[in-house]
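User: I'm curious whether this sequence folds into something compact or stays loose and floppy. Could you predict its structure so I can see for myself?
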Amino acid sequence: MRIFLLRHGEAEPHVQPDSARPLTARGILETEAIIERELDALRSVSSLWVSPYTRAQQTAERVIRRLPELAPQTTDLLVPEANPQRLATALEAAAVESVLLVSHQPLVGVFLDWLVGLEPGCQRLGTSALAMIETEVIAGGCGELRWVVQP
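Assistant: Here's the prediction. I'll summarize afterward.
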């Protein structure tokens, strides 16, 4: 399985509730640049899972503009404080070949570190960062981090 982790683009800092924070113009541009840069790799994605937060939904919209065949699945499994084990269980059950997860810190960093067996806090993905992990089993230390790109 290939797991792509995309952290949402830069968002407005002062909007309440936090879940309603939209992307900034910079967040849009950086996200579009990362998607364009890694478009060939992203063409392998067969499933798109997205946090319900506004900034993640807007980030996913940028992906869909370049890969319109993807139908986003909105899930609370990708909110910032979601449980990484629940996410792992859901991914295992989905049995997809290649998935793109659009989410937030701290979840993306915690999940990445756990899956590839790194010390907690080792990988901190900035806004619009994209990582690709390959794994046969969704379990701690079983994945291989292939690459990370940051704006």
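Summary: Residues 10 and 25 are 8 Å apart (CA to CA). The mean pLDDT is 96.
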